[in-house]
Design goal:
Elements (H helix, E strand, L loop, with lengths): L2 E6 L4 E8 L2 E9 L4 H14 L7 E5 L5 H18 L3 E4 L1 H11 L8 E6 L5 E6 L10 E3 L14 E5 L3 H11 L4 E4 L8 H8 L28
Parallel strand pairs: 1-4, 4-5, 6-9, 9-10
Antiparallel strand pairs: 1-2, 2-3, 6-7, 7-8
Helix pairs in contact: 1-2
Length: 226
């Protein structure tokens, strides 16, 4: 199996892992609201020192998430891929978190709602079925609109992402008929899960470019013309 170097700085963490098939060669992660630019390079260096050979591909979360964090991770991933002369795959933060829910074994057979903190009044959200396939497109929306993402007929729902608390607060009030399960270990992306998710996509790397996934424009105020 190909060795994949995966890295994530999309939300409130920094994570790097080297995964060879079913074997995790090395991994390192830390929670942080900021500072990924200082933490990422040393993490990568330590993980690469543990690798028995050069990675065959780089995988990186492409968003949604924090604008600065996304740029840090994507720039590092692209630079490494260029230096090594290997493919670079970008995978959505939603997909990684939904995969972590399913791979963790805490819940099975349940639809999944991923909610990601946007650092504003809205949040990023996407719903998946019990097989991890998207039921809705990823979007930025106000929390009160979350109930419309829920699959018809659902009686139990797994909640992932670092906006779990905000999502559950709204859904408990709007849909008391649904049992909500907050999944531990699926609050922020993990580079091990990212690498696992990337493995079957390597043959179609060109279909998963490391381009940023932004669901709304950045918080920038243009200067007034004089």
């Amino acid at each position: 199996m190909p060795l994949i170097l995966a890295l994530d700085t999309a939300t409130t963490g920094c994570s790097v892992a080297a995964v060879d098939g079913a074997s995790v060669i090395a991994s390192e992660s830390a929670r942080m609201a900021r500072g990924q630019s200082e933490a990422l390079a040393p993490m990568i260096e330590r993980i690469l020192q543990s690798c028995p050979r050069q990675p065959a591909a780089i995988a990186v979360t492409r968003g949604p998430g924090a604008f600065t964090g996304l740029r840090i991770g994507l720039a590092a991933a692209r630079g490494l891929a260029l230096a090594f002369g290997i493919p670079c795959l970008g995978i959505s933060t939603f997909d990684v978190l939904a995969w972590q829910v399913r791979r963790g074994g805490q819940v099975s057979g349940l639809p999944i709602l991923v909610g990601i903190d946007s650092k504003r009044a809205d949040l990023y959200a996407q719903a998946f079925n019990d097989q991890g396939r998207p039921l809705t497109p990823g979007e930025a929306l106000m929390p009160e609109y979350l109930p419309r993402l829920l699959p018809d007929g659902a009686r139990r729902l797994a909640i992932a992402g670092d906006a779990q608390e905000a999502a559950m607060k709204v859904l408990v009030a709007a849909r008391p008929d649904i049992e909500l399960i907050r999944v531990a270990g699926a609050e922020i992306p993990d580079a091990v899960g990212l690498a696992e998710l990337a493995q079957p996509l390597l043959s179609r790397a060109a279909e998963h470019p490391p381009s940023p996934l932004y669901l709304r424009p950045p918080d920038v105020t243009m200067p007034k013309s004089s």
